[in-house]
Amino acid sequence: MVKQYAVIFFALLITGSLFAEKVSSLSEGKALASELNKPLLLDFMTDWWGSCKQFARAAEEDQEVIVVVAVPGEGVDLAKQYGIKGYPTFILANANAETYYRWMGYTKDLLFTKMKAGFADLTTIAEKQKRYQEKPDARTAAVLADYSGSQSAYKEAIQYSTKAVSLDDSK
Predict the structure, then answer these.
(1) 154-167 and 138-150 helices, crossing angle to 10°
(2) Could you read off the pLDDT of 19-73 as tens digits, one per residue?
(3) Where are the strands (E) in the chain, listed by range?
(4) Model pTM score
(5) How far apart are CA 72 and CA 8, in angstroms?
(6) What is the pLDDT of residues 92-125, one digit of tens each?
(7) Are the C-beta atoms of residues 144 and 128 closer than 8 Å to each other?
(8) Taking Cα atoms as reference points, which of 104, 90, 101, 153 lies closest to residue 126?
(9) What's 70's DSSP letter?
């Protein structure tokens, strides 16, 4: 039987390290995030995919990445609720579990790069979409590209990525 999990982190990114508080359910994570005014990181993973295994090993071996309690009972329902299409998928969310940032794939460097990008703009995806419609910018386009790609909306992801490159003034 294939197992799917939602691993819930109470996440705080400080100087390149991820510190997490253990929680055993989304409701517990939401309550703690609300109490401390900090975001959640939801990790949707399987027990059979290479990147998921790599993250799990790194989390056990590396004190900078701390895995919290897997929630097998909630995992399948949460994956459906969040429209998870591939593994691992990470979602940075507010205390109401509304998505700030979302991406697929894992390497340690990618995790910290994406976490840093997510923490740079703690507005919901809905707020980012509205802002982008009003005044497109490269950073928001890149975030929306990651979000779309993680939902297998590849045409939309390519459009956002193309726009992000065209708006990037750091070239």
Answers:
(1) 160
(2) 555 567 788 878 877 887 778 878 787 777 777 777 766 655 544 433 333 455 6
(3) 4-14, 17-21, 40-46, 89-93, 99-104
(4) 0.78
(5) 11
(6) 888 898 999 999 888 878 887 888 888 889 999 9
(7) yes
(8) 101
(9) B
Q: How far apart are CA 34 and CA 61, in angstroms?
A: 29
Residue 125 in contact with residue 102, Cβ under 8 Å?
yes
Look-up of token digits 């991820």: 18
Residue 27 token pair: 């409701």
Nearest to 111 by CA among 69, 65, 44: 65
Quote the tokens at residue 153: 């909306």
Please give the order of strands across the beta sheet that includes 17-21: 17-21, 4-14, 40-46, 89-93, 99-104
Residue 6, beta-bridge partner list: 44
Pairwise CA distance, residues 9 & 24, whole Å: 9
Written as six digits, the tokens of 69 are 């309690």
As beta bridge partners, residue 10 has 21, 40
Give the tokens for residue 134: 């009003």
Q: Judge whether 103 and 146 are in contact, CB under 8 Å.
A: yes
